[in-house]
Design a protein that fits this description.
mainly beta; 57% strand; 243 residues; 7-stranded antiparallel sheet
Amino acid sequence: MKSTNPTHRKTPLHRARRALSAWSAAALLGVTVLAASATAGSANASSDNVYGPVMGGRAYSIGFFDTKILNLTVPDGGSPDTGWVSSQASSTFTRPCTNVNLGFASATANCVNVTTAAQSHRAIASTSLATAHLGLTGLPVVDVKAVNATSFSSCFGEPGYGGSTTIAYLKVGTKVVIAQPTAIAPNTKITVGPVSLTLNEQIAGENGFTVNAVHLRASVPGVVTTNAVISSATSFVSNCYYD
């Protein structure tokens, strides 16, 4: 029977606590949650003292970093997540396609994959999802559909890396930003109220080449701060030149 006690009503703080519990439960059930600080710099570690190219990367579907909701800290991590992987052989690293429900965020048909090709000395990371919904307290609701992000790195070609993002639909609050399948230009920036978005964010760094389909940053003092990513793919190839 539904309680009529006003202390049982779901206040924003109550909802936030339930959301954090959902995230923790997902981790306990085996969904990979990797802190950025724990994985940074690990991408090329396997190439030390190895003869010949090492290929790999990381792909995750939806991730939150440096996020606080009503002063409650959300653990850093992505889900589902391949973690950092590498190989000198032709290999495929993946996680089962799945749905994610964290309370304050959800996504359906999340698929992540990193593929290495020994003969061509190439790595490809990719992520895709059918829908994602971000409903963080104090921010406009964000909805996306049919999101795909891809990153590749190779020992050959110039510059030897690249990537792409396609998004079929994006809505922030009441504003429809994308209404049909669209190939997004690199590092497209959009601001809606307190929400800053970078679409098809492309970053070349020491850990490889990263493509974030949607990178959301927002801060409402005392209410919410977040650094959220939807569909992230990173690829790398090291030891390309050897005697």
